[in-house]
From TrEMBL:
Keyword Metal-binding (UniProt): yes
Lineage: Bacteria, Pseudomonadati, Bacteroidota, Flavobacteriia, Flavobacteriales
Protein family according to the UniProt entry: Belongs to the metallophosphoesterase superfamily. YfcE family.
Protein keywords: Metal-binding
Keyword Ligase among UniProt keywords: no
Designated name of the protein: Phosphoesterase
SUPFAM superfamilies reported in the protein's UniProt record: Metallo-dependent phosphatases (SSF56300)
Residue ranges annotated for the Calcineurin-like phosphoesterase domain, each copy included: 3-150
EC annotation from Swiss-Prot or TrEMBL: 3.1.4.-
Required co-factors: a divalent metal cation
Pfam families per record: Metallophos_2
MF GO annotations: hydrolase activity; metal ion binding
Length: 163
């Protein structure tokens, strides 16, 4: 079993509260718009990190992290990208891959809106952790944590923080 902390849209912002949650996880996953490599460096000092770059990320971040990150964790096929859309309204950049080879867990960021929902047509779970950074229109900063174990995603928890 692995405990996952999922975050997105830090926009160069990291604080002790985020790092405290990272310490309690086995892995941290970042769904893009990192903003500054200092964010990922701080997270990597604490736990293993899987991340993708987002639309605001510069060439340095794009050299460090891919556009899409597909991997298996505890028997769960995971695909992370930054701009992904939602079930029934996926981004054209990822839509064909999702239809041809759907993962069990599809993660994206970008919208700053926390949303977790099943896609019954593709038989996957979609997660967007919202935004944990301070830049953007969101009124509450959010992250998700959950466990993955033997092909199952469980113990989903929303973490909310004031702006």
């Amino acid at each position: 079993m692995k405990k996952i902390l999922l975050l997105s849209d830090t926009h160069s912002y990291i604080d002790e509260r985020i790092l405290t949650y990272a310490e309690k996880a086995d892995e941290v996953w970042h769904a893009g718009d990192i903003g500054d490599l200092a964010v990922t460096e701080a997270l990597q000092k604490i736990k293993p990190l899987r991340a993708v770059f987002g639309n605001i990320d510069d060439h340095e971040i794009r050299k460090e992290f891919p556009l899409n990150n597909r991997f298996s964790c505890e028997g769960v096929d995971v695909l992370i990208t930054h701009i992904g859309g939602y079930p029934g309204r996926y981004s054209p950049a990822i839509r064909e891959e999702l239809k041809a080879n759907p993962p069990k867990l599809f993660i994206c960021g970008h919208s700053h809106i926390l949303k977790v929902m099943p896609d019954r047509k593709l038989n996957l779970l979609h997660m967007n952790p919202g935004a944990i950074g301070k830049h953007g229109f969101h009124k509450v900063r959010t992250m998700l944590r959950f466990t993955v174990d033997q092909g199952k995603i469980d113990n989903l928890e929303v973490i909310e923080m004031k702006r």
